[in-house]
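Forum > Structural Biology > Help requests

Title: Can anyone predict the 3D structure of Putative phosphotransferase?

Hi all, first post here. I have the sequence for Putative phosphotransferase but no way to get a structure on my laptop. I'd be grateful if someone could post the structure tokens.
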Amino acid sequence: MDEVKVVVAHSERATLRVGDVFLKVDADRARVGTEVEAMSLAPVPTPEILWHEPPVLAIAALRGTTLGRLGGPSTGSPAAWAAAGAAIRTLHDAPPPPWPGRAGRSAVALAAELDDECGALVTSGVLPADLVARNRRVAEAALRPWTPAFTHGDLQIAHVFVDGDEVTGVIDWSEAGRGDALYDLATFTLGHEEHLGDVIAGYGTGIDIDIEVIHGWWSLRSLLAVRWLVEHGFDPFAPGCEVDVLRARM
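Reply #1:
Sure, ran it for you. Structure tokens for Putative phosphotransferase below:
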């Protein structure tokens, strides 16, 4: 029998690997349904769905390896990062799905959530006040009107697989929906600022890519994530992770 490996696990969801099969268990059945539908609509390579029995989704392993992970070195070449940028552009150019995704929250709602979280970070002593205040100002750039696009919503580099310079698949679509294209670009390059130029080169022209907005999303996403990560057993203070992303804006 193949060994069962826990890929990630917390109170909301867990992913297990058994041989070449990944089993995703999600406490939110609607989120699993969103993932299945989003993969059926996405114009980029996605894993083969083997079966879906809520709250469990079984998918096949993808060929290749990820481009890296947050807090670790990138294993991909500049050409691979550019290929990922081109794949992201293909997704963003597709007709967006009818439902809002994680990248589609309104500026008003995000600003309120961000202000509450910044207050909690300072009050609890998790982060120093000057670090929070500086990044709150940087995050303001992301809080602006945007044209809806087909967004992945959680496009971490660990969710994009490549074989050489070819993108072989994108995983974890549970947060997909209508949203801000620059949120995806920011999430993908979070902690790997040195590859932003490669990604933009592959992404191409025709959409206004405002670097200040991407910086804003880096700060906003990191501020909102720190306490959740700590409370769920992850370490945002590890080298290259969220707290270092916030420090870089200082």
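The radius of gyration is 18 Å. The beta strands are 4-9, 13-18, 21-26, 49-53, 56-60, 65-66, 149-151, 160-163, 166-170, 177-179.
Shout if anything looks off.
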